[in-house]
Amino acid sequence: MAKPDLMLFEEEYRALQEITGRLAKDASAKVVFLVDKNGQQIAAAGDLQDIDATSLASLTAGNVAATDGLARLIGEKEFSLLFHEGEKDNLHISIVGKRGIVVVIFDQNSSLALVRLRVRKASRELQEIFDRVEARALQETAAGSGFESPFCEITDEDIDRLFGD
Amino acid sequence: MTFINYASREINCKIVYYGPGLCGKTTNIQWIYEQANPEKRGKLVSLATETDRTLFFDFLPLDMGTIKGFKVRFHLYTVPGQVFYDASRKLILRGCDGIIFVADSQAARMEANIESIANLATNLRENGFDIRSIPYVLQFNKRDMPSAVSMDEMARLLSFRNEPMIEAIANKGVGVIESLKASARQILLELQRS
To answer: B34-89, pLDDT tens digit by residue?
Structure first.
């Protein structure tokens, strides 16, 4: 079965955002992104002005997916860490649980060792939140969901309006 | 897999354009990119070879406006059509919400269309989806080609469920938005059901 939709509520979103922000500070990073393995950005922190966050999320997910494919070809489950070294900026990409990817962009104000250390700690906290999100989704599926989705009354007119008709 | 963020009130959906090599998948999203309001579209990312053949994927994020107070964002992806890029195609289907299958109307490409649909079914299954139930639109592209097969014949060869079938000439924009809209409708109505 395909995984169910990823639904984030206020409390979880705030927690993920808070951990991401703290990681950016603790790792002296320029930017930290939390994206999901399908290429959707979940949270971000740092100096985001000059970065195309949407493309970054999509390309990161593509990169991780391709690297996963390579891992399986040589009999590994996955490569949990990718590191790209640039002239000024570096990219540290790591997998969190089944669903998340943490991307840290850093320059000479930090170091690979520091980033690795801080990412490891933050990953544990992020994992706890993701586990909570998943447990809630499973619980809701099992209980037939008492949660009233705002999308249960989407009409054809709503969809036409999206396309400016 | 739709990503719904109740905190920032956003819905993100992933639509994948699938089909045989040179059928016009990239042309579809290039046309959407050119026509879209610059404020609503993101950057078009193309991972292509030097000869403009898709190597990994093309990607276009689109902000569509709001529905029930939620910002709706579509992420459009194409797959590389050439047969030997199958491993990449499989990866791109991960977490998709809907498929637009772009079929090439030229008689000589009918076999390639059929093979590509079979390949899509396999790759969807390996990602945990069922081609008979996932939101799916069938686009008949290149209707202006002299050797284009009739619509009836194409439907007979390529249709396998009650999917929307749309005639298109993607390089002139014919049928492009209609296909996207048909896919969006299916995905959003699916959201309603779940």
So the answer is: 999 999 999 999 998 888 898 899 999 999 999 989 999 999 999 999 998 999 99
Q: Which of A12, A58, A153 sits opposite B45 (nearest CB)?
A: A58
Model confidence over A18-30: pLDDT tens digits? Answer: 999 999 999 999 9
Within a domain: A4: no
Neighbour count for residue B35 (Cβ, 10 Å): 11
pLDDT at A1 over 50: no
Domain boundaries defined on chain B: 3-193
Q: Cβ of A40 and B189 within 8 Å?
A: no
Give the span between the Cα atoms of A70 and B105, in whole angstroms.
35
CATH code: domain of residue A66 = 3.30.450.30
Question: Which residue of chain B is at minimal alpha-carbon distance from A152?
Answer: B192
Query: In angstroms, how far is CA A68 from the centroid of its own chain?
Result: 16
CATH superfamily of B3-193: P-loop containing nucleotide triphosphate hydrolases (3.40.50.300)
Only one residue has tokens 């059901």, namely B193
Structural domain span for residue A149: 10-162
Q: What single string gives the DSSP state of each residue in B71-121?
A: EEEEEEEE---SGGGHHHHHHHTTT-SEEEEEEE-BGGGHHHHHHHHHHHH
Rounded-to-integer distance, Cα B137 and Cα A148, Å = 29
- Mutation test of the interface with chain A: which of B5, B9, B73, B137, choosing the one with the most A Cβ atoms within 10 A? B5
- Of the candidates A2, A161, A162, the beta carbon closest to that of B128 is on A2
Instruction: Indicate yes or no: CB of A69 within 8 angstroms of CB of B45.
Output: no
Provide the total of helices (H) and of strands (E) in chain B, helices listed first. Answer: 5, 8
- Total number of domains constituting chain A: 1
pTM of the predicted protein model? 0.90
Q: CA angle at residue B126 from A100 to A133, to 5 degrees?
A: 30
* Rama region for A125: left / alpha / beta (φ>0; ψ in -120 to 50; rest): alpha
